[in-house]
Predict the structure.
Amino acid sequence: MPCQSTFTERMCSVRAAGASMPTYTASSTRVGPETVSPGSRSAGCFIHQPTTSTAITRTGIHHQRGNGWRSPPKAPPVCPSDGSSGGGEERWDTEHRLRPNLSGGGELRLTRRWGIARRRDAMLRFDGAGVSDGGPVRELNEDAAFLGPWLALVADGVGGAAAGEIASATTAYVVSRSTGRGTDPMLALDAGVRRAVDLMRRASAVDVDLLGFATTLTGIALDGARAALVHVGDSRAYLLRSGGLTRLTRDHTYVQRLVDDGYLEPSRVASHPWRHVVTRSLHAGVVADDEHPEFSELTLVAGDRLILCSDGMSDHLDDDRIADLAGGIAPGRAAQGLVQEAWLAGASDNVTCLVVDVLDLPEDRESAAGRGKAPAGERFGSLLDDSNVLGATRLTTY
């Protein structure tokens, strides 16, 4: 029997111009195919209930049922270190519901509190390579990625929405500047996400071309032996340990919700017409209680390999194929092979992949590594163009 569930107000972003947009009834109702019908084919709009509003995107003016575009609220305050809600103010949900089994005796420790256990028995760093390919179909590469010694992340601008490349590049840049050696990984990721959202809100308030822009984000930050993961949307992170592949993230998509609630077989996800509809993203609108990014704590060891990718890759390669292609070779060759395989499998979206090895930090480099500094690293995709980063050249008043 499928589980009984309800939809309250929910915001979804259509990530493909050709996808039909689902709409929901105005009242809370059981999730199921009978409560959802194809709606507008316009991409990049957000769905709310119950009033009527107008969304302005680069593809024109689209009317939709929703709460309307509100004035951007102030940036949410940083959650207190004791994990309290701060008197009902907006805060991120730090509970990560996915509990994978890690092979090789590893442990994925989850937290509902802010801060990470201070384990100092190892000093680790990232080293790897990445590829971001816009492909022959899309006009723009809306994927952005960053890889440095303490941070790896992938952000995928909502396909077809206004300025997806700006949302992804800005988020990647701001989060990369918020992390660094000697900073708590989870708090640094949280601070970076908040700054990015605040910047997006202020920008969309003064620039009509930015209404509706949004991005996914999947990133892992590292300091010493401490690591933390932030995830929102359908970009993915995998852990390859001792030959076994574990998916560290669960897609925030409409079809994943149907699978979770028993209305859709996993084997039918790849062919579902609404497989690109995401139920969570970073955007300038009002965030519902169940739409916050997920933060979790990771335990990594030297010898682990991480794979981060946009849905352009994961939509076409299953976990077994990713494990086969990602292991046993240099990160650069692995990343190239994974992206090439995605194209051969029929990918039409932008494809981005980072392959990241977890290595011991040599003792002679521990003292030399700068503390509190933003990490030097390599940029990919839309992040290569400074004009895509809000506050850099597009809106110089910030």
User: Anything to note?
Assistant: The longest helix spans residues 185-206.
